[in-house]
Design goal:
Blueprint lengths: L3 E6 L4 H17 L1 E9 L5 H12 L9 E7 L2 H11 L4 E5 L11 H9 L5 E4 L11 E5 L6 H15 L2 E8 L3 H19 L5 E7 L3 H11 L4 E5 L14 H6 L7 E4 L15
Helix pairs in contact: 3-4
Length: 274
C-alpha cells in the first residue's frame, strides 16, 4: 500500500473533477492513494451522496491510482481539515468556484477551508493539468520567517516533477528592504541549487505586486503558483489584503499551492518528503 495520502473534496462538479485530475497526476509521480470526500449536511442524504460519488468516480476508473470514496455528515469548513488529519494526508486538492452555493467552495470559502487545516492545499480552477504535472512553479518571496517552510514544500514537489522554480520578489527603493530582497534571493538560489533544482529570480514592481506575480506566471507558462496563507501585511507592503483570494482565483486559472505556516519549533518536515 502507498504510504502517501491525498484528499480531494468532491461536490459533483467539473471543477472538482479537475482537482481530481491534478491529484491523480501528482499521485502517479509519488505513488499516493487518493480519498474523494463529499460532505453532506444531514444523515438522510448519505445514501444518495454515496451513490452519486461512486458514479462521479467511474470516469477515473482507468487511472492507475487507488481512489477511495468517502461521504460524511458535517460541513466543509471543519470536515475537510479533520478528514485530512485523520488520514495523515500530505496534500489536499480542491476546486474553487466563482459563484456561491450550498457547500460550494468559492474563493472566499476556499481560504476559510484552507485556514482550518495544517495540510498544504493545491487549489485549482478549470485549467487542465499536464501529464507531466507542474513543470514550472512560480514562488513569490517576502521576508516572513515562515517563507522557508514554503520553499521546503516547493522543493519537495519540484524534485518529483523535475520542475523549474521561478522566484519573484518586489523591487524596493528603500535601501534596507533592497538589501533584504537580495539576501532573500540569494538564500532561495542556494536552497534550490543545493537540491539540484533549476531556479530563476525576477524583480517586479512592488506596486500591484499580486498582479505582477500572475503576469510573470503567464510569461513563464507556469503550472503552479506557491503562496503562504499569512493573514497580515507583508514587511514589503507589497501584498494586498485580498492577496490570497486574488491568487487562488487568478484569471489565468493557474493552480495555487497554499501553505499554512506552522510553529517553527514544531516544524520537522514537509509535504511529500520521504
Amino acid at each position: 500500500m502507498s504510504d502517501k495520502t491525498f484528499i480531494v473534496p468532491h461536490d459533483f462538479t467539473e471543477l472538482a473533477d479537475n482537482a481530481m485530475r491534478n491529484a491523480i497526476v501528482t499521485a502517479k509521480f509519488v505513488k499516493a492513494k487518493i480519498y474523494a470526500l463529499h460532505v453532506v449536511a444531514k444523515e438522510k442524504h448519505l445514501d444518495d451522496a454515496r451513490k452519486e460519488l461512486a458514479k462521479q468516480l467511474e470516469k477515473f476508473s482507468d487511472e492507475e491510482v487507488e481512489i477511495v470514496p468517502s461521504v460524511r455528515v458535517g460541513n466543509i469548513f471543519d470536515d475537510i481539515g479533520e478528514f485530512a488529519a485523520e488520514h495523515d494526508a500530505e496534500l489536499i486538492f480542491m476546486g474553487t468556484h466563482g459563484a456561491s452555493g450550498v457547500q460550494k467552495i468559492t474563493g472566499s470559502h476556499a481560504l476559510k477551508v484552507v485556514s482550518y487545516s495544517s495540510v498544504p492545499f493545491v487549489v485549482t480552477q478549470l485549467k487542465p493539468v499536464k501529464d507531466s504535472g507542474y513543470d514550472d512553479i512560480v514562488v513569490p518571496l517576502d521576508l516572513h520567517k515562515e517563507t522557508k517552510q514554503k520553499l521546503a514544500v516547493v522543493a519537495s514537489m519540484a524534485r518529483y516533477f523535475k520542475s523549474r522554480v521561478h522566484v519573484i520578489t518586489p523591487d524596493e527603493n528603500d535601501e534596507f528592504l533592497k538589501h533584504k530582497v537580495q539576501a532573500n534571493i540569494q538564500f532561495a538560489k542556494k536552497f534550490f541549487s543545493e537540491r539540484d533544482i533549476e531556479i530563476t529570480a525576477t524583480l517586479a514592481p512592488s506596486s500591484g505586486f499580486d498582479k505582477e506575480i500572475v503576469k510573470h506566471a503567464i510569461h513563464v507558462d507556469a503550472d503552479l503558483i506557491a503562496i503562504m496563507n499569512i493573514h497580515k501585511n507583508s514587511i514589503f507592503g507589497a501584498f494586498s489584503n485580498n492577496y490570497e483570494q486574488y491568487m487562488i482565483t487568478n484569471d489565468a486559472q493557474i493552480p495555487v499551492l497554499v501553505v499554512n505556516p506552522v510553529d517553527s519549533s514544531q516544524y520537522g518536515g514537509s509535504v511529500l518528503f520521504t
